[in-house]
Amino acid sequence: MEGDRRVKPAPFEYAAPRSLEEALGLLGEEAKPLAGGQSLVPLLNFRLARPELLVDINGLSELARIRRGDDGVLRIGALTRQSELERSELVAAEWPLLTQAVRLVGHPQIRNRGTVGGSVAHADPAAEVPVALAALGARFVARSPRGGRTLCAGDLFVGPLMTALEPDELLVEIEVPPVPEEAGCAFVEHARTAGDFAIAGAAAVVVPARHAAIALLGAGPVPVRASDAEGALVAGAEPREAAALAASHIGKGPRRALVAELVRRALEEAAR
Amino acid sequence: MRIAVEVNGERYEREVEPRTLLSDFIRHDLELTGTKVGCEHGVCGACTVQLDGEPVRSCLMLAVQAGGRSLRTIEGLAEDGEHPLQRAFHERHALQCGFCTAGFLMSLEPFVREKPEPSEAQIREALAGNLCRCTGYRGMVEAVGQAAKELGGG
Fold first, then answer.
1. How many CB atoms lie within 10 A of CB A181?
2. Which residues of B touch A113 (CB under 8 A)?
3. Residue A3 confidence (pLDDT) above 60
């Protein structure tokens, strides 16, 4: 079969570093990190992405851990497979919003390879995990040869498929603070079929009269927190009123109605 | 790059270009053509194989990433082609042209092993990651239920 190779992606150099330091040294303008590949490989196959160098980080097992620190903060290594997050009993017990959200990512075959960090760094506006993380007030830890920094969702997500990460920066960990005691949570979305990209969705974390976090999917180019609706809810608004407020920034039309309805469902489910 | 992979219990060593997709490697380098290639961007599921026991899309992995790992393709599902899922697909007319079938079977094998009495909704969700353009899925839903029952969660 020599000389008869079927190839889709354009040629690239390939490196599989064995340590984070080595990986960071390889990243840069013409390099792309390869984690689960569930979004990057289609782009390579279509030749929409043509990196000169692929830095395969799958060997960095130190980035594939889920643990809770002494401070109660959940630390999810960026290389954690979506299926591992889905199966984590710790996450299901303490951060059930994440379990609900990750179950909606693609299909089991996708989640077996796809990573939590990949969902975040790819920044698809229809991705569930970033929306859930925004509702939970997560912080995103990036490393580069120049050092490290921690960003909140509002600073990290800058546009569709765009983050504030520099080409030589790698997302290494996601920190999720403890959910307020007695909080109810729900992730609701509308997709044409199970596993398809969602058209719209809503994540809610609610403690009646004390705490409300609402993040929206499909209401803008990035995950959006509905701060007006959050304030109204804490002040005693009904779910339906808060939901209408959450969707009020979207232009009049079906999307606004859909988002409002999904927020209402999320709030009612979270209150149960 | 030179890689060694175990496929269906057999060890293969091959020289591959990094950009070779695992799906193309399986079909063209290993000549295991039971694995089919449909959309090549992770939507149709026809190329699904098992990587260390877990179903994955082989068109969304590079062959070099399978180095040192263990793969199972449709050729390794059952020696005689008589896995309970294969038999159930046959008996319940769960295929017509057959192009998507290998991907369905490799996706569904862990499901029928782990869930002895799945509901129709659970079966439909388990089928959702693969596309079939012939059957309308009705026969597949029945076949999966039958195979799950037969395997009885073991």
1. 8
2. 51, 56-57, 60-61
3. no
Nearest chain A CA: its distance from B57 CA (Å)? 6
Tens of pLDDT, residue by residue over B10-42, are 999 999 999 999 999 999 999 999 999 999 999
Spell out the SS3 assignment of chain A.
Answer: CCCCCCCCCCCCEEECCCCHHHHHHHCCCCEEEECCCCCHHHHHHCCCCCCCEEEECCCCHHHCCEEECCCCCEEEECCCEHHHHHHCHHHHHHCHHHHHHHCCCCCHHHHCCCEHHHHHHHCCCCCHHHHHHHHCCCEEEEEECCEEEEEEHHHHEEECCEECCCCCCEEEEEEECCCCCCCEEEEEEEECCCCCCEEEEEEEEEECCCEEEEEEECCCCCCEECHHHHHHHHCCCCHHHHHHHHCCCCCCCHHHHHHHHHHHHHHHHHHC
Q: Check CB contact under 8 Å for A113 and B60.
A: yes
Q: Which residue out of A103, A107, A111, A192 would a mutagenesis test of the B interface target, given it has the greatest number of B Cβ atoms within 10 Å? A: A107
Q: ipTM, 2 decimals?
A: 0.94
Tell me the backbone φ, ψ of residue A267, rounded to 5 degrees.
-65, -40
| Neighbouring-strand partners of residue B71 | B7, B51
Answer whether B129 sits within 8 Å of A54, measured CB to CB: no
- pLDDT reported for residue A2: 47
Measured CA to CA, the distance from residue A109 to residue A63 in angstroms comes to 21
Q: List the single residue in B54, B60, B126 with the smallest CB-CB distance to A38.
A: B60
In degrees rounded to 5, what are phi and psi of residue A183? -75, 145
Residue-level pLDDT at A169: 98
Minimal Cα distance from B45: which residue of A? Answer: A109
**pTM here?**
0.95
> For residues A219 and B47, what is the distance between their CA atoms, to the nearest angstrom?
34
Residues in chain B closer than 8 A to A16 (CB atoms): 64
CB-CB neighbors (< 8 A) of A195 in chain B: 125, 128-129
On the 0-12 / 13-18 / 19+ scale of CB atoms within 10 A, A141 is middle
Kindly report the nearest CA distance between residue A91 and chain B, in angstroms: 21
pLDDT greater than 50 at residue A1: no
